[in-house]
Design brief:
Blueprint (H helix, E strand, L loop, with lengths): L3 E8 L6 E4 L3 E11 L1 E2 L3 E6 L2 E8 L2 E5 L6 E3 L2 E2 L4 E5 L9 E7 L10 E13 L3 E14 L3 E6 L2 E8 L2 E4 L2 E2 L2 E3 L3 E7 L11 E5 L8 E14 L5 E7 L7 E3 L3 E8 L6 E16 L2 E3 L1 E3 L2 E7 L9 E7 L12 H4 L7 E2 L5 H5 L6 H14 L5 H8 L3 H7 L3 E2 L5 H6 L8
Parallel strand pairs: 30-31
Antiparallel strand pairs: 1-3, 1-11, 1-25, 2-3, 3-10, 4-9, 5-6, 5-11, 6-21, 7-8, 7-10, 12-13, 12-20, 13-18, 13-19, 14-15, 14-20, 16-17, 16-19, 21-22, 21-29, 22-28, 23-27, 24-25, 24-29, 25-26, 25-28
């Protein structure tokens, strides 16, 4: 898998909702809310928690000039920039988003031809790119259709979208066989079209949506179970209040590179399964909302700062989401350590406990008599939040005299 997420455009956030290009009509305006928008990139249309369309192309991208109503073409736009785009869809509106990506190996399905048109005369415009006059020979050519350019019977370049289809009287929804029209291809063409080429349109499956995104979570720490799977301490940010983490759901693992201003995320694994979900040490089948969780994942290639993206394909059978057998997801048994009674070697086997932290724990326990709970122990010795999450499954705090609890001065960390 070589997919790299390069940017995100969100509609409804731009200063202007749209601009009008002569001869083309309105282009919707959006704001680059992550990474960069690169002209020619592939795109998915995301609406709420669903992916409605894939294999779109960022065929035209313009921006408004400063202190002017005129527009100019741009090849890429950075973080928080407003852009106006054409991708082969005319229904983009507030709340929609385009997830931009590149992928060198997995392309769209081009096995079902829908229609063919002969290229009669190509032309080029600095603002809107390539457009070609065509004659539909077989089948039908539709606005927004996925198409391929052929030369001498061989495909040239990558599949493209019909960004606009025009007849003598203006825009057309489709071009039937035997009729002439103009196809707008924009800046998608890897190879400039020539007279004598052919455009082949492909049929795409009809569905309400392609995929439903359940949620995302950021990895803060990882424990390798040694059986081909890991338990990851993850956090769901407050901005993602509609998250669901469900046992059995498919998951992708994304590995970000760079900063917010130019962040890219490589998809390092896909079609994983969520083996277990827990919050506060309590296992559950589905966890919702924000906060810190622990996830069991059927892979060992998980790193800190990775992103877990859970999803359900539209055609996924119900049984695909059933919990896996207990033998697969059950963690290896580990001894529980009493932090108020254990010796130094036992404390050293707890998550995050360095020799310095062990010595600090023994000294604090001697001075104050013990720790009121595991969280207070973790805070006192300087463990990180994800280490304390792991500590809950490995340690307990035995009874402490009341006076010792009053004198600790250690606050409880709410994770």
């Amino acid at each position: 898998m070589t997919e790299v997420r390069v940017g995100l455009i969100e509609f409804g956030k731009a200063l202007n909702a749209s601009v009008t290009l002569p001869g083309l009509g309105e282009l919707p305006g959006g704001q680059v809310s992550a990474g960069r928008a690169v002209r020619g990139a592939r795109a998915r249309l995301k609406r709420a928690d669903r992916i409605l369309a894939d294999n779109l192309r960022l065929g035209i991208m313009v921006r408004k000039k400063f202190f002017s109503s005129d527009v100019e073409p741009v090849t890429d736009a950075g973080f928080l920039k407003d852009v106006f785009v054409a991708v082969g869809r005319t229904d983009l509106g507030p709340g929609d988003a385009l997830e931009l990506y590149t992928d060198d190996t997995i392309g769209p399905d081009t096995s079902r031809p829908l229609g063919t048109a002969a290229v009669l005369a190509p032309a080029y415009d600095q603002l809107t790119g390539f457009h070609v006059q065509v004659r539909a020979d077989r089948g039908v050519l539709r606005s927004g259709a996925l198409t391929g350019l052929f030369r001498g019977g061989r495909p040239v370049g990558q599949p493209m979208r019909v960004l606009g289809l025009f007849g003598p009287a203006g825009p057309l929804p489709e071009l039937p066989a035997g009729q002439l029209g103009t196809v707008l291809l924009g800046f998608q063409c890897d190879v400039p079209p020539m007279a004598g080429d052919a455009l082949t349109a492909y049929e795409e499956p009809s569905s309400d949506y392609l995929e439903r995104r359940e949620g995302t979570a950021h990895v803060h720490g990882v424990t390798d179970l040694g059986n081909g799977s890991v338990v990851a301490a993850v956090e769901v940010p407050d901005a993602r209040t509609n998250n669901l983490l469900t046992v059995g759901t498919r998951a992708r693992l994304l590995r970000p590179v760079g900063t917010t201003f130019n962040e890219r995320s490589t998809v390092v694994a896909t079609d994983l399964r969520i083996l277990s979900v827990a919050r506060g040490g309590v296992a559950m089948r589905t966890a919702a909302g924000t906060g810190v969780f622990t996830l069991g994942l059927a892979t060992r290639d998980v790193r800190q700062n990775d992103i877990v993206e859970t999803y359900i394909p539209a055609d996924a059978p119900v049984q695909a989401l059933a919990p896996p057998p207990a033998a697969v997801s059950a963690p290896l048994p580990v001894p529980v350590v009493d932090v108020n009674a254990a010796a130094g070697p036992e404390l050293a086997h707890l998550p995050g406990m360095t020799p310095e932290r062990v010595n600090e724990a023994l000294e604090l326990r001697r001075r104050q008599g013990g720790f009121p709970d595991v969280e207070a122990f973790g805070v006192a010795v300087g463990l990180q939040p994800h280490e304390i999450v792991r500590l809950r499954e490995r340690a307990t705090a035995g009874q402490v005299p009341v006076i010792a609890q009053r004198e600790t001065g250690v606050r409880q960390l709410d994770i």
